[in-house]
Write a structure and sequence with these properties.
Elements: E1 6-10, H1 14-22, E2 27-31, H2 46-58, E3 62-67, H3 73-76, H4 79-89, E4 93-96, H5 99-108, E5 113-116, H6 125-133, E6 138-140, H7 147-155, E7 162-169, H8 181-186, E8 205-206, E9 214-215, E10 231-233, H9 238-243, E11 248-251, H10 258-277, H11 286-291, E12 300-301, E13 324-334, E14 337-342, E15 346-347, E16 351-355, E17 362-365, E18 369-371, E19 374-376, E20 378-379, E21 385-389, E22 399-403
Helix pairs in contact: 1-2, 1-10, 2-4, 4-5
């Protein structure tokens, strides 16, 4: 019998946490202000973390806290207090990389569930089983593994050990996220959550005896984005991963927008539900496959899951493709009117898509806009509360978006 995989979504701040929960995540992973691998997002203070855990738990969503940097000597004395505070906040698990941190977790908060981060680079069953013997409940496998290798790890490890893999989001040229490029070029350590993403930059070739003379690596005066990896997307192959023994499908993106978190979480929630309805003939609906293309993303690939990727890099540029803009977010519905908070400019006569949790989007043409009770032709004030006559009762948190011009 196929075990229903967990949909695990990123939460860079409270807004993105609520987006993940609203759009169907079974669990979220997030960071506090210390020991986490993402320094750029707002993250959560301990007070905010406690409130976030309470919000998630009331809605039956688990919370995993990252503690997966490689801490230096100067950070170790403060770690036990941080671990005790995390336990007090009620988090369901800690995600760790460093063996010393793992040992400290088991001594300081022995009842805390531990997940081993992808940063640990687990690529074989012996290592996975050893972490289990050391007290880990779950391993997040390295991104360089194929589905067949994952299946062998599942076969040769204790069945109680949970297996998590990334199924969607940004990838990099490093091995399991352990990279020195950023530290070397900018003194921002990727292994401490400060990556400057130099793999996304354009590069030229320079010969040492002709300094300042740049040669394109390809015949293109813009140089080449030779290190720029495509994004990962496995939504069409979740059945293969589930049958290989994966118990948690992880979405990358703690630095992504709440719109991104909402749309991608919703797509994978609906895809997993389809998988469980028909595991022997998994065919996600067309609208689900289209949804992951309606967020800002690089070209997609399937990473290493089907062997070493032959076309895993994107050389044209380092940026994203974006096809939709969010114009408003629903805050309520009453008396035939949708109450929204504006995000971007829109006008009477515009056609938008409305995305609600767990449903295909519907198309709707805006017939009127009311601001402070007065009819206006265009919405021009970000975060203004507006009323829109709408024949469809629409859930709070629904997203109104428009095709980008």
């Amino acid at each position: 019998m196929l075990i229903k995989p967990e949909v695990l979504a990123p939460a860079g701040d409270r807004e993105r946490l609520e987006a993940a929960v609203r759009y169907g995540a079974d669990a979220v992973y997030l960071g506090s202000t210390q020991y986490g691998m993402r320094a750029a997002p707002t993250n959560f203070s301990l007070k905010e973390l406690e409130a976030a855990v309470q919000y998630a738990h009331v809605r039956n969503v688990r919370v995993y806290l990252t503690c997966n940097t490689l801490p230096r000597n100067s950070e170790m004395d403060a770690l036990p207090q941080f671990l005790l505070a995390a336990e007090q906040c009620g988090v369901d698990a800690l995600i760790v990389t460093d063996i010393g941190v793992l040992g400290m977790v088991k001594r300081t908060v022995p009842d805390m569930e531990v997940h081993i981060s992808t940063q640990a680079g687990i690529v074989n069953y012996v290592t996975a089983a050893e972490f289990y013997r050391m007290g880990a409940k779950r391993v997040v496998l390295a991104r360089e593994l194929s589905i067949d290798e994952i299946a062998e790890i599942r076969e040769k490890t204790p069945p109680e050990l949970e297996i998590e893999v990334f199924v969607h989001g940004a990838m990099c040229v490093s091995v399991s996220g352990r990279c020195l490029l950023s530290n070397y070029l900018t003194a921002r350590d990727a292994n401490r959550g400060e990556c400057a993403q130099p793999c996304r930059w354009a590069y030229h070739l320079m010969e040492e005896k002709r300094p300042g003379k740049y040669f394109p690596v390809f015949e293109d005066d813009r140089g080449t984005y030779i290190l720029n990896a495509k994004d990962l997307c496995m939504i069409e192959h979740l059945d293969r991963l589930a049958k290989a023994g994966v118990t948690s499908f992880k979405i990358e993106g703690r630095a992504k927008s709440s719109y991104y978190v909402s749309v991608v979480t919703n797509a994978y929630r609906c895809a997993v539900d389809e998988l469980m309805r028909n595991p022997e003939d998994y065919r996600p609906a067309r609208w689900i496959l289209d949804e992951v293309k309606k967020v800002s993303h690089r070209q997609y690939s399937t990473g290493f899951f089907f062997g070493t990727p032959e076309a895993g890099q994107y050389y044209d540029n380092g940026g994203y493709q974006r096809s939709y803009d969010v114009v408003a977010v629903a805050e309520g519905y009453r008396d035939g009117r949708l109450i929204v908070a504006q995000r971007n400019k829109f006008a009477v006569g515009d056609t938008v898509e409305v995305l609600e949790p767990g449903k295909p989007p519907f198309v709707w043409t805006i017939s009127a806009i009311y601001e402070d009770g007065a009819a206006v032709q265009a919405a021009c004030h970000p975060m203004a509360q507006l009323e829109l006559p709408c024949p469809h009762p629409t859930a709070e948190g629904a997203i109104l978006r428009r095709a980008a011009e």
